[in-house]
Amino acid sequence: MLLFLLGVLVLHIIILILLIVSTAASAWSVGGDSSTDLWYNCMTTNGGYHCKPAGNEDWIQAVQALMILSLLFCFFSLIAFVFQLFKLVKGGRFFFTAIFQILASVFVMCGAIIYTVMRPDDASGTQFGYAYVLAWVAFPLCLISGLIYIVLRKKE
């Protein structure tokens, strides 16, 4: 049981790292000499790297908010898991942790879907970058983790 709890904790930390990298990295959309993320649009011109803030469109602000919410909910569910691990009664389930983790997965999914649908196709050579892929990888892992927390019972 201890190894299983350790495995769940490691999975949760991996998901948190994926969400942090996905939210902060500057590679949601890449192509040629440009890269776009949730915060900046960057281009390489004349040997220099120039960035300007992302647009003020509603959809990019929604994606920013959803990714930050997913990060916060994942972090708070980790704190809740550690707290419940020591304070939960024998036989109790980790429902509070599970709800936060499942909400985090829903926020990641919604943010990635909005970015997929609304992403501007300025240049024909742009493609999705690794940060976008990490967001999609974090979604099912976060959902599976939340479902594990629903099933998980505390044993002495």
Quickly describe the structure.
With 156 residues, the protein is of the alpha+beta class. It contains four helices and five strands.
Helix content: 55-70%
**Gap from first CA to last CA:** 9 Å
Spans of at least 5 consecutive residues with low confidence: none
N-to-C order of helices and strands: HEEEEHHEH
Tell the overall outline: elongated
Query: Can you count the helices?
Result: 4
Average pLDDT rating: 88
How is the main sheet built?
Answer: 5 strands, antiparallel
Helix/sheet category = alpha+beta
Spatial strand order of the main sheet: 4-3-2-1-5
Give me the Rg, rounded.
Answer: 18 Å
Strand-residue proportion? 5-15%
Instruction: Tell how many strands the DSSP assignment holds.
Output: 5
What do you see in this structure?
The protein has 156 residues and is an alpha+beta fold. Helices cover 63% and strands 13% of the residues. A five-stranded antiparallel sheet has the order 4-3-2-1-5. A hairpin with a 3-residue loop joins strand 2 and strand 3. Helix 1 runs antiparallel to helix 2, helix 1 (2-24) packs antiparallel against helix 4 and helix 3 (95-118) packs antiparallel against helix 4 (130-151). The longest helix has 30 residues, at 58-87. 31% of the residues are buried.
